[in-house]
Amino acid sequence: MSTPPLASGPHGPDALRPLLDTVLHALHAGTAARGGPLPAGGPDAVTARVRDAAGDVLPDTGDPDALRTLVTALTEGAADPAHPLCAAHLHGPPLAVATAADLAASVLNPSLDSWDQAPAASALETLVTHALARETGAADALVTTGGTESNQLALLLAREAAGGTLRLVHGANAHHSLPRAAWLLGLPAPVVVPAPTGTLDPAALDEALDQVPGPHLVAATAGTTDAGLIDPLPEIADRCAAHGARLHIDAAYGAGLLFSDRHRPKLTGLDAAHTVALDLHKLGWQPIAAGLLTVKNPDDLTALDQRADYLNAHDDTEAGLPDLLGRSPRTSRRPDILKIAVTLKTLGRDGLGALVDRVCDLAQQFADLVTGHPGFELHAPPTISTVLFRPTDATDHTVATIRRTLLTTGRAALGRARADGRLWLKATLLNPRTRPDDLADLLHLVEGNTPR
Ligand SMILES: *Cc1c(COP(=O)(O)O)cnc(C)c1O
């Protein structure tokens, strides 16, 4: 076999063109073969089809058809967030323009651990992270792999600012990555503040801050994963200020509301946080990964300073080469900023805001359908784009079974969430191209799969 072509360089685009054609055809064929939001048949059937398609995964002699075969198989077996009945998770359909930009990122393969691997990408990252930081009232922002890494970094920066240890205080509604980050960083077990209505209770927070010795990092949530609820940020910020506690806001889901004039007021208080987690692969329509951690005090970032002679020698830095190693705990790092920058500039604030408004409207429309149907119960009016609902008088077992039946038949992907001591079906509406008819179909499908 001759040396396979490379993606970049003078011949890169010519080598890529026919391969892209293969990929696009395979995406078409796989989507048609699936015919719905998910593959039918459940895990065993999907695994069998993938095993058949993959064959010998490391054959002695290569297979030139592997790109077509494997992309087709992956597409056929995908949970496709662009299908209107795929609404289980904060798993959004990426915009075509962002995905095209991500192709260029893969082709050029800049690595953001040193300037000599990413001259323009690092300059673009500086511009865009600063602009996004300003949106949350912060001074700077780091690019992360998502809310999980952002939360962990927020804890790390807080721990270092506090002199080596601190106590995490979070709501019972917080994302699991927060207590996990405390565990990873060797911090004491977090204090969990009750969230009886689904949001952190400021009075209970006050009590916890009084009782448990500090220093504290309070983590609030703007957009809970289960219900899209936003903690009372201004009250929490006041309590933190009164107790000298540091505040992190996990806005992995909710931060996208900043793009919408209509919904931005829901995030009032966000600018009081020392750090904010944002996930643009949720309400931002980016391919994974597109996370950010904004940081109010840039001095906090010195905790990440790191020296490695081959990447940021003192004399290189003194001679003016930007030092990038302290911008992440990772070393090699993809230019996720390119797709973000392309999206922000292509759509503008108006375009992104319209997408946010659209999915929030869809959630309201779905909630109205649920309310208007005697066979269903709505948990609460949606705050962002998540709707919790269940068949009236169903048991938790029935709710869980409906969800699994829809998943394994490949008809619809809904999530599940526990609230008020009961299990609910969760529709997370992130697809701006979903139509009102699709929402009616979704409810109809659930109705048809509810045993009576
Ligand atoms: C999704 C989510 C996370 C985790 O983000 P990843 O991008 O999956 O790492 C953290 N917090 C909240 C509130 C989330 O919704």
What does this structure look like?
The chain has 452 residues and is of the alpha/beta class. It folds into three domains: 12-78, no CATH class; 98-346, 3-Layer(aba) Sandwich (Aspartate Aminotransferase, domain 2), CATH 3.40.640.10; 348-448, Aspartate Aminotransferase, domain 1, CATH 3.90.1150.10. The chain contains 14 helices and twelve strands. The chain has helices spanning 12-34, 42-54, 66-76, 96-108, 119-135, 147-161, 177-184, 202-211, 233-243, 309-312, 314-318, 337-371, 396-408, 436-448; strands at residues 86-87, 140-144, 167-171, 191-193, 216-221, 246-251, 275-279, 291-295, 376-378, 386-391, 413-419, 422-428. The strands form two sheets. It has a seven-stranded mixed beta sheet, with helices on both faces. It has a five-stranded mixed beta sheet with strand order 1-11-12-10-9. Helix 2 runs antiparallel to helix 3 and helix 12 (337-371) crosses helix 14. The model has no long low-confidence stretch (mean pLDDT 97). Pyridoxal-5'-phosphate binds at residues 90, 146-148, 175, 177, 221, 223, 225, 250, 252-253, 279, 291.
The residue fraction in helices comes out at 40-55%
Question: CATH top level of the largest domain?
Answer: Alpha Beta
The coarse overall form would be globular
Radius of gyration: 23 Å
Within CATH, the superfamily of the largest domain carries the name Type I PLP-dependent aspartate aminotransferase-like (Major domain)
Q: Biggest sheet, in brief?
A: 7 strands, mixed
